[in-house]
Specification:
single chain; alpha+beta; Transcriptional Co-activator pc4, Chain A; 8-stranded antiparallel sheet; 45% strand
Amino acid sequence: MPHPGSVSLPPCRELTWRTTTHQLVDDLRFPLATEVSYRSHDPFAVRFAFQLPEEAVVWDLERDMLRFGTEAPAGGGDIRIRPAPYNRTLLRLGAVGNYALVLVERTPLLRFLDRTFEVVAPGTEGGHIDWGPLYDARAD
């Protein structure tokens, strides 16, 4: 039986951007192979997978917060984003006293974010989410 307000979802679209970010440790910069991805069925999140020798470290960042953080300080708690010199964006990932600082090139990041907004326009995110599991859980 269909759920209240159920509609068929548009096909899931995925975007991927492979880049090199830089982790800042003291006065040193360490390059990190990074995969940035976006799935239209998880429309609020942009995933950063930082490739380390042992395994990837994955962080999901809120798409609008990431966009705002390219222009002005944004975020709170474990995720803080702000503009950095030389056309970069600085990500602070982790709790106070135990966090990583990562620099991302701003222009290609903005191009990637623009593509995500073409796939799922602001204000239409709810139409790309499968709400069925929520209705199923409430029915139990």
